């Protein structure tokens, strides 16, 4: 009888250990699955995904720009959102929305599109700044700023309203917000700089702003 009792006790211990190991393994697998989920929701991982697609639109847009290819470059402009041009006709910045780019009719008309050939690699950093006093950039290259929120058009609209009494209707203000919300700034520091913004609509990327006023220190 005593032998049977010890045999029963031994089997019970083995079963208990087996259950404990199984639960430990399940908990471990659950933690691993949780870690995978956290990694996928990591903002830096999302930025890495954006880099792949942003590099494509940036490279393609600059290529079409240098080749002066109207048809190709306009395929990178959203058919409904259009593209906002920023320029500086005087002391203040101005902007206007157009539906397409025409290399024979630059916006503004007095500022032809200059070649932007370069040999830079894309750098994902805060966009460079231009100092009009020294007439120099604080760094040279082709930069995509994935971290700085775009806020260009609304301040310009506010200045136009305050100093030039330019009133924008509600629909136009919505178009302004659409152009710059969640967009990324691209700066190419060629002798005549090329500065634009890219944004995702659905599963495609488009250029929503062409900034031809920044680094213009003539006014």
Automatic annotation (TrEMBL):
Top-rank taxon: Bacteria
Keywords: Signal
Secretion signal, residue range per the UniProt entry: 1-19
PROSITE patterns: PROKAR_LIPOPROTEIN (PS51257)
Name the record gives this protein: Lipoprotein
Species whose genome carries this gene: Sphingobacterium populi
């Amino acid at each position: 009888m005593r032998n049977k009792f010890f045999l029963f006790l031994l089997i019970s211990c083995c079963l208990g250990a087996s259950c404990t190991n199984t639960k430990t393994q399940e908990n471990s697998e659950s933690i691993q699955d949780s870690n995978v989920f956290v990694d996928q929701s990591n903002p830096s991982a999302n930025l890495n995904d954006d880099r792949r697609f942003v590099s494509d639109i940036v490279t393609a847009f600059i290529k079409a720009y240098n080749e002066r290819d109207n048809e190709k470059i306009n395929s990178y402009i959203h058919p409904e959102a259009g593209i906002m041009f920023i320029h500086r006709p005087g002391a203040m910045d101005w902007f206007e929305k157009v539906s397409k780019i025409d290399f024979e009719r630059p916006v503004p008309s007095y500022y032809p599109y200059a070649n932007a050939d370069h040999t830079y690699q894309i750098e994902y950093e805060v966009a460079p700044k231009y100092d009009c006093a020294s007439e120099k950039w604080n760094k040279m290259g082709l930069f995509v700023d994935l971290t700085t929120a775009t806020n260009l058009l609304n301040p310009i609209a506010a200045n136009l309203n305050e100093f030039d009494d330019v009133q924008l209707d509600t629909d136009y203000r919505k178009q302004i917000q659409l152009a710059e919300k969640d967009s990324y700034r691209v700066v190419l520091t060629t002798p005549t700089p090329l500065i634009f913004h890219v944004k995702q609509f659905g599963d495609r990327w488009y250029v929503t702003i062409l900034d031809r006023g920044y680094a213009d220190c003539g006014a």
